[in-house]
Amino acid sequence: MGKALPLEQRSYWNRLAAQWDIQLMVIPALLMIFVFQYIPMYGVMIGFQDYSLFKGFLDSPWVGFKHFSAFFNDSDFSRVMRNTIVISFLKLLIGFPAPIILALMLNEVRKMFFKRFIQTISYLPHFISWVIVAQMVSSMLSTDNGSVNMLLVNFNLIEEPVSFLSLPQYFWSILVMADVWKGIGFGSIIYLAAIAGVNPQLYEAASIDGASRFKQMYLITIPTIMPVIIIFMILAIGNLLSAGFEDILLLESPAIREVSDVIDVYVYRIGIQNQRYSYATAIGLFKAVISIALLAAANYAARRSGNSLW
After folding, report:
1. Do residues 43 and 281 make contact, with C-beta atoms less than 8 angstroms apart?
2. Is residue 260 within 8 Å of 171, Cβ to Cβ?
3. What pLDDT score does 1 carry?
4. pLDDT digits (tens, 9 = 90+) for 157-200
5. Could you give the CA distance from residue 67 to residue 51 in angstroms, rounded to a whole number?
6. pLDDT 10s digits, 261-305
């Protein structure tokens, strides 16, 4: 009998058959994606219809780009797009580097007990729902015995309590800080895993050459994990129009809607509460197309560095 070929030299179907047990493990995930991600795409057609629940998908009249045109000409368009872009950029500017910085700082901690304690404390907010986080933020900023107002009054920084969540000029800052606090710890896990894969001999060689810990971080750690950073940057740019939903929906109020209305919340209010299904679908499809274009552009730009999604 001839010697069997190594797995990497076999044909595609032979490799697939040799790994049948592993491939079976993937099937449930593929089915879930197909059922919950691809089948619902059939409903995108109502963005081009005057959809009626009683007439259904097939009998509702087709209106072409009527709802897209209505959104672009709506008085809310500029406000919604401005808020979406500004909040997304703030979250990208502050929220994206925050887990990287935390991971780099934790990597420099030598006391394992202290390191694990900080990791546990920073991971915990991720497992708290936005409903509870929003209630915590509201309680802290409350004018009635809220801890923030009490602290500011006691330090004579303000004369009387301020209703922060009712003032538009504070909303973006509060939202971004709450988002960073909730996600910074869990987001740092991937970067800590990437840092753990750095060859220790590089640090030893740099230390022998007299490089400080900061220089080792700057010259070794960051360049080594840069491919991971670039991949997540591509994904973040692709989600640039996803400014948030749960956090904004739970923290906003009619008094600050001028600065809190973003695409996702606007679609929810127009589509679900006002039952304008076709109009909301058209807005969601517009967002999806722009997101795909941003993702492709970011991936194309990153390809020059040798790191891209495809």
Report:
1. yes
2. yes
3. 47
4. 888 999 999 999 999 999 999 999 999 999 999 999 999 988 88
5. 11
6. 999 999 999 988 888 999 999 999 999 999 999 999 999 998 887
CA dist., res. 260 & res. 256, Å (int): 6
Spell out the domain ranges in the chain: 1-35, 65-303
Residue 225 CA to residue 82 CA, distance in Å, equals 33
- What mean pLDDT do residues 32-39 have? 91
H helices of the chain, in order, are 12-18, 20-33, 56-59, 66-73, 77-90, 97-107, 112-123, 130-140, 147-154, 168-196, 200-208, 213-216, 222-238, 246-251, 257-260, 263-267, 277-303
Q: Distance between CA atoms of 79 and 246, rounded to whole angstroms?
A: 19
Q: Give the pLDDT score at 16.
A: 79
Closest C-alpha among 235, 121, 122, 133 to residue 175? 133
Q: According to the model, what pLDDT value does residue 308 have?
A: 80
What number of other Cβ atoms are within 10 A of residue 173's Cβ? 12
CB of 183 within 8 A of CB of 126? yes
Q: Which CATH number fits domain 65-303: 3.40.50.1820, 3.90.1170.10, 1.10.260.40, 1.10.3720.10?
A: 1.10.3720.10
Beta-carbon neighbour count of residue 56 at 10 Å? 10
- The contacts of residue 24 (CB under 8 Å, 6+ apart) are none
Q: What's CA 70's distance to the chain center, in Å?
A: 29
Q: What is the pLDDT of residue 213?
A: 87
pTM of the model: 0.87
Structure tokens at 9: 């030299």
